[in-house]
Amino acid sequence: MTLPALPKSWEHILVEELKKPYFQQLQNFLAEERETQTIFPAEEDIFSAFELTPYENVNVLLLGQDPYHNHNQAHGLCFSVKPGIKPPPSLVNIFKELHSDLAVPTPEHGFLVTWAKQGILMLNAVLTVRAHSPNSHKNKGWEKFTDAAIAKVNEKPDPVVFVLWGGYAKKKLKLIDTNRHIVIQSAHPSPLSARNGFFGSKPFSAINQALLQLGKPEINWKVSNINTKNQLNI
């Protein structure tokens, strides 16, 4: 398997990572996996987060862990699912908190491309997964690659809002200059932890307040029921 090319705005930023031995080993692993396993997301969607949010447009970085592992869910953005797919439990809780925080109506779908297009890099730490086997591509090299991406966002001359939900995401705090950037942390929206600090954390208003503080446009969090074919033209 040959991974799709990174979008140009990111390719020159991460070019050195693409040359490193671990990245070639990762590609070899994925090629072997593709021969015998079903892998999500589809090859053309693996770098969707980078395609939808060019480096120069990143104002917010929202970090997830692992792609959804059931059919027709993952499409390269953390927490987002393809149109027509029932939102998984974590996304249901995200929408509950969004309604509680900003009175945004609960969307009819979980396709969050409109968020990404507004400058939110919706990045999973691991970008692929074997079907029905969560964390199956953990520690194969993706974390080194996405850590490098986080570090490059940290190097942006203009401050960024980093959103870290849950213990796994909070471990990335070491990659962030908290003197320059704004970090918003809480429990993960998973049903296992949402009641331990995600519900009531009001992250969406906090993100917008942080963006205003930095002189950047607020996010329109409403996930409108527009023609998804238009959204898919990325």
Automatic annotation (TrEMBL):
Pfam families: UDG (PF03167). It comes from the Bacteria. It catalyses: Hydrolyzes single-stranded DNA or mismatched double-stranded DNA and polynucleotides, releasing free uracil. It is found in: Cytoplasm. The active site is at 66 (proton acceptor). It is an enzyme of class 3 (hydrolase). The keyword Transcription regulation does not apply. One of its GO terms (biological process) is base-excision repair, AP site formation via deaminated base removal. Coiled coil: none annotated. One of its GO terms (molecular function) is uracil DNA N-glycosylase activity. Residues 51-211 form the Uracil-DNA glycosylase-like domain. InterPro entries: UDG_fam1, Uracil-DNA_glycosylase-like, Uracil-DNA_glycosylase-like_sf. One of its GO terms (cellular component) is cytoplasm. SUPFAM superfamilies: Uracil-DNA glycosylase-like. Keywords: Cytoplasm, DNA damage, DNA repair, Hydrolase. Its EC number is 3.2.2.27. SMART domains: UDG, UreE_C. Belongs to the uracil-DNA glycosylase (UDG) superfamily. UNG family. Excises uracil residues from the DNA which can arise as a result of misincorporation of dUMP residues by DNA polymerase or due to deamination of cytosine. HAMAP family: UDG. This is Uracil-DNA glycosylase. It comes from Mastigocoleus testarum BC008. The gene is ung.
